[in-house]
């Protein structure tokens, strides 16, 4: 078979099945058009968040966010546990806290209510309307799942947290993005402060307790002084209790001074353990817009369907041509001629 014969065979074959090929191409185009119309327009915001810690904390770790990201394994159970900020951002607690937030600019509605209205107002062609959940808890749970699908949290090479959220309206995308940043910052600060806060509260309670004991000893000494106003205070029955009270007070005063120093130290540690969360890139417009064009998808379906099914119908002819060319190259032209003579009776039948 020559190249001219190959071209003629392909043309004749396509001519016979042109109706089928065109029909399939149109069906493929319609399918991709429906797919494009099913997907609503989405907006994606991006924000970068960075925690500022003290210099001592930075020198104790291999990177600024090593403790935050959990890259160092504690040597013992008693050491501070690391906080994985990605898991914190994607946790159910964080998502449901964001869903329960109220937006004062939208009639003080919760994010969950706004998200439900947003999904129903920006549906695709084949998306069903979402019914309002029976109670507030179910609504927040549903909104938390929707937020999970739209949220992406990663850490870049500079150890900054990159938060991306994809939604169907730019206004709600902005509100939800700031909600995630606020909740993540709040939870992270609370977790970092927890141990230092407990130490400070314990030290403060100890100082207050010792102060009360000192006041009690002072009151006892005053009462003894009142009772011994016209008596001889050199007697043991009066002198020993007063000396014991003074000794106790001196010991308590030393403990009180130590407790106050511990309280001040705990207050310093609490301030030191409090990180400052800075938003380097705010989730403000312009956003990345994804809009699937029905025209482009239709052309892709039409052209792709036409080419694929054309190749499907002429694949046998092309394979036979390459087989004959291979036989010619390997066995010579005589083999191909014999094959042609043998195929003629069969083709005549």
From TrEMBL:
<dbReference type="Pfam" id="PF02706">
    <property type="entry name" value="Wzz"/>
</dbReference>
<dbReference type="InterPro" id="IPR050445">
    <property type="entry name" value="Bact_polysacc_biosynth/exp"/>
</dbReference>
<dbReference type="InterPro" id="IPR003856">
    <property type="entry name" value="LPS_length_determ_N"/>
</dbReference>
<feature type="transmembrane region" description="Helical">
    <location>
        <begin position="294"/>
        <end position="319"/>
    </location>
</feature>
<keyword id="KW-1003">Cell membrane</keyword>
<dbReference type="GO" id="GO:0005886">
    <property type="term" value="C:plasma membrane"/>
</dbReference>
<dbReference type="GO" id="GO:0004713">
    <property type="term" value="F:protein tyrosine kinase activity"/>
</dbReference>
<feature type="domain" description="Polysaccharide chain length determinant N-terminal">
    <location>
        <begin position="10"/>
        <end position="99"/>
    </location>
</feature>
<feature type="transmembrane region" description="Helical">
    <location>
        <begin position="19"/>
        <end position="36"/>
    </location>
</feature>
<protein>
    <recommendedName>
        <fullName>Polysaccharide chain length determinant N-terminal domain-containing protein</fullName>
    </recommendedName>
</protein>
<keyword id="KW-1133">Transmembrane helix</keyword>
<keyword id="KW-0472">Membrane</keyword>
<keyword id="KW-0812">Transmembrane</keyword>
């Amino acid at each position: 078979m020559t190249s001219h014969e190959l071209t003629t065979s392909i043309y004749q074959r396509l001519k016979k099945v042109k109706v089928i090929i065109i029909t399939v191409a149109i069906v493929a185009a319609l399918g991709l058009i429906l797919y494009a119309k099913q997907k609503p327009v989405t907006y994606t915001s991006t924000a970068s968040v960075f925690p500022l810690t003290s210099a001592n904390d930075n020198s104790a770790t291999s990177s600024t966010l090593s403790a935050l990201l959990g890259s160092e394994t504690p040597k013992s159970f008693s050491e501070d546990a690391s906080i994985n900020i990605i898991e914190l951002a994607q946790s159910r607690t964080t998502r449901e806290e964001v869903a329960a937030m109220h937006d004062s600019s939208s009639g003080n509605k919760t994010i969950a209510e706004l998200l439900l209205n947003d999904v129903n107002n920006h549906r695709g062609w084949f998306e069903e309307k979402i019914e309002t959940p029976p109670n507030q808890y179910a609504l927040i749970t549903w909104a938390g799942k929707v937020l999970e699908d739209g949220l992406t949290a990663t850490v870049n090479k500079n150890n900054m947290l990159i938060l991306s959220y994809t939604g169907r309206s730019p206004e709600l995308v902005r509100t939800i993005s700031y909600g995630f940043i606020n909740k993540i910052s709040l939870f992270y600060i609370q977790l970092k402060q927890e141990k230092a806060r407990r130490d400070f509260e314990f030290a403060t309670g100890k100082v207050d307790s010792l102060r009360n004991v000192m006041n009690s000893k002072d009151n006892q000494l005053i009462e003894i002084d009142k009772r011994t106003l016209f008596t001889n205070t050199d007697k043991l029955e009066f002198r020993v209790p007063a000396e014991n009270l003074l000794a106790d007070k001196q010991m308590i005063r030393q403990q009180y001074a130590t407790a106050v120093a511990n309280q001040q130290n705990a207050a310093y540690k609490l301030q030191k353990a409090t990180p400052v969360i800075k938003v380097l890139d705010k989730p403000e417009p312009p956003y990345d817009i994804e809009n699937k064009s029905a025209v482009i998808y239709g052309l892709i379906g039409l052209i792709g369907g036409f080419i694929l099914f054309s190749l499907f119908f002429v694949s046998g002819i092309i394979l036979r041509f390459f087989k004959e060319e291979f036989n010619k190259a390997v066995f010579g032209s005589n083999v191909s001629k014999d094959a042609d003579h043998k195929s003629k009776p069969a083709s005549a039948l």
